[in-house]
Amino acid sequence: MKKILLAAALGGLTFFIWGFLSWVVLPWHNATMPNLPNENAVVEVLKSNLPETGVYIFPGYPNMEDATAMDVFTKKHEAGPLGMLFYVHEGKAPMSPSTFFYGYITFFLIALIAAALLSLVVKRTKNYAGRVFFITLIGLIIALESHIGGIIWMNVPSAYALVNAVDAIVAWLLAGLVISLIIKPSKDAPVAG
To answer: What is the pTM of this model?
Structure first.
């Protein structure tokens, strides 16, 4: 259990450091999220029309049993624009210490699960590269489901989704490099073929 906790602590730190490099040092996320044109005017419209925090989608989904509403929805959807808005009405401090704390705790828990999964299959891995590959596959699954799936189901712009998918895969690869150094077959356990 100590090895799993150590792997989680260092794997979580790896996720955290990669997140900083990916979002602060590399330009790729900013390239897919331009600033809102005419921000002040748009924000005033949002404040006056959206009184509470939430996720808003447009065109809004109709009652599926109402054929007329479905026709209106279809026409709006085909004409565009389409969108999903993540909206926090109250505002909050940017990058407060609690953001970093909860971010690391989340990364620690993610790495803990990855380390626990690897410990279950570690006897079947032939070498370090195989263990890293196993962890990276977890990231690939997550990236495909959460980011690439967004292109298909939620009309997320491809460039944004692809950058986030690659970001996730790299994060899992780097964390896999660290976790796999710690979670490895014991010297007396035979490696399965």
So the answer is: 0.85
92: which 2 tokens? 């909050």
Are 168 and 22 a contacting pair, CB within 8 Å? no
Evaluate whether residue 191 is within a structural domain.
Answer: no
Output the CA–CA distances (angstroms, integers) from residue 38 to 34, 44, 87, 136, in the order listed. Answer: 12, 10, 17, 41
- The answer as to whether 53 is a domain residue is no
Q: Rounded to 5 degrees, what angle do the CA atoms 175, 177, 183 make? A: 95
| One-character DSSP codes across 11-44 | HHHHHHHHHHIIIIISSHHHHHSPPPTTHHHHHH
What is the domain range of residue 22?
A: 2-33+95-182
Indicate the pairing of strand 83-87 with strand 54-58. antiparallel
Q: Which residues contact 159 (CB under 8 A, 6 or more apart)?
A: 31, 32
Write the DSSP symbol of residue 145: I
Instruction: Please check whether residue 68 lies inside any domain of the structure.
Output: no
Taking CA atoms, 54 is separated from 35, 90, 117, in Å, by 20, 11, 34
Domain count, the chain: 1
* Per-residue pLDDT tens over the stretch 42-86: 999 999 999 899 999 999 888 888 888 889 999 999 999 999 999
Nearest CA to 25 out of 179, 182, 167 is that of: 167
Domain-located, residue 107: yes
